[in-house]
Amino acid sequence: MSTLFDEFMTNSSCESGESDLCRDESAALILKFVAMASILVAGFSGIAVPLLGNRRGLLRSDGEILPAAKAFAAGVILATGFVHMLQDAWKALNHSCLKSYSHVWSEFPFTGFFAMMSALLTLLVDFVATQYYESQHQKTHDRHGRVVGNGEGLEEELLGSGIVEVQGETFGGGMHIVGMHAHASQHGHSHQNHGDGHGHGHSHSFGEHDGVDSSVRHVVVSQVLELGIVSHSLIIGLSLGVSQSPCTMRPLIAALSFHQFFEGFALGGCISEARFKTSSATIMACFFALTTPLGVAIGTLVASNFNPYSPGALITEGILDSLSAGILVYMALVDLIAADFLSKKMRCSLRLQIVSFCLLFLGAGSMSSLALWA
């Protein structure tokens, strides 16, 4: 069984396809180290900008800079799914080397099918996760959300129990109680003068409100988006790692660094809006930034015994690229573009609309143009 698997993944009548003039293993090895360093720095920089900017008040989620920048990043992710991942998946599943192994992969549009199923499964995960976090939030609220006095005691009780911090930046218990601060902040106090005294009316918002819903959505979006980004980041890292052609790798390194920075920016914006604990946000940031360099390292180690044009490699690459494309397209259109562009903030600011649409198309166009080199 092991022998058959090794033959399936490594052997093929097709050669690598790289020109002998460009094949230079020693130069390629140096470039792989350069790639790991460049992509690592780009990934950490991209995801750190919105996280640190939000904490320092420079890129606050309630301002206009972060939504506009996220529009550019959303365009990058959308183009990654449509232009890069779907195209790579189609090439892999329709490769001549795979056709010589089995014609079934060219007789059915598996690329679009896997991408469609991935998008639908992402919708299912999105829905189930949102329901789960809302139920967890309600349970937490039932335990800690008792109104004391005129309502101000609620915030004090949460602060005393370690659920939230003063600035609402971190939440105890991680992702399961995100949104508690939004609930607490919904306690409005209306004071009306009636001539002979003061009437105090207190509006307690414990139902399904935008503040709670958006907080829960940000948690789900950040986690599902990271899943989609990480899955295809590993694939592109492996592809770069197994390459022995400096001619191919040089433009690819620049393209992947650009790509990693803005994907990190989009993910960092979602994480900052979800208001995870610092430790949770750090773990998510490191997991994202290290995935592609890790893929390059793994590809480098197996390059001598791995044939990227074997049937197993082509099928694996094609399916994973299709699944990643479905996730990224869904996340970009539904949870990033639609969520921001159909929000009340966007509808109320013509300037933000114009800037965001321009940046959205600029991001999509810029990432699409990289297909000339990567």
Automatic annotation (TrEMBL):
It is a multi-pass membrane protein. Residues 193-208 have a biased composition (Basic and acidic residues). Residues 183-208 are annotated as: Disordered. Keywords: Ion transport, Membrane, Transmembrane, Transmembrane helix, Transport. One of its GO terms (biological process) is zinc ion transmembrane transport. The chain crosses the membrane at residues 29-53, 65-86, 108-129, 281-303, 323-342, 354-373. It is found in: Membrane. GO terms for cellular component: plasma membrane. One of its GO terms (molecular function) is zinc ion transmembrane transporter activity. Belongs to the ZIP transporter (TC 2.A.5) family. PANTHER family: METAL TRANSPORT PROTEIN, ZINC/IRON TRANSPORTER. This is Metal transport protein. It comes from Medicago truncatula (Barrel medic). The gene is ZIP5.
